[in-house]
Amino acid sequence: EHLICLGVIGGPKQPKRLYTFLHPFEDELARLAHGVSTYDALSRELFLLRAYCILCLGDIIAIQKLLNIRGVNAIVPCRSCLMRGFLNPGGTNYYLPLTHPQDDGEDPPVS
Fold first, then answer.
1. Which position has the higher pLDDT, 110 or 1?
2. 86 SS3 class
3. CB within 8 Å of 88: residues ≥ 6 apart
4. Beta carbons within 10 angstroms of residue 65's beta carbon
5. Helix, strand, coil percent values for the chain (each to nearest 5)
6. Which of 28, 62, 88, 92 is most buried, taking the most CB atoms under 10 A from its CB?
7. pTM score, two decimals?
8. CB 46 within 8 A of CB 94
9. Phi, psi for 85 (deg, rounded to 5)
């Protein structure tokens, strides 16, 4: 009921640095979090309005741009954990192997 859609950015000419467009919105949210004096026309008095951004939705590419992270080919590709990727030999992409590259390749014992 009390939801504001900030915007939808897509298409072939999307901005390269989305955070530059979101900076004014973040400044506004910082002010709203501390409270802004607002007039209530129904009760005819001022009250302190507070607002917070509690949810941001998007597909993988949109969230990468929103959080200003590189994505699946980065050294640390996950935004939620500390897994580190390894550089593909002779390449420029990082990957997450199933076992450590220096392991002998044998599966660990199951206990």
1. 1
2. strand
3. 94, 95
4. 20
5. 25, 15, 65
6. 62
7. 0.50
8. no
9. -85, 165
53: three-class secondary structure by DSSP: coil
State the number of CA atoms in the 13 A half-sphere of 74 facing the CB: 12
Record the tokens describing residue 17, joined without a space.
Answer: 């640095």
Distances (CA, A) of 106 to 18, 59, 84, 100, 110: 44, 36, 21, 11, 12
Which residues fall within 8 angstroms of residue 67, CB to CB, at 6 or more apart?
79
DSSP state of 79: S
User: The tokens of 20 are what?
Assistant: 């530059």
Residue that is written with structure tokens 């949210």 in the block: 29
pLDDT by residue (tens digit) across 52-76? Answer: 888 777 777 777 777 777 777 777 7
Tokens of residue 31, six digits: 């002010």
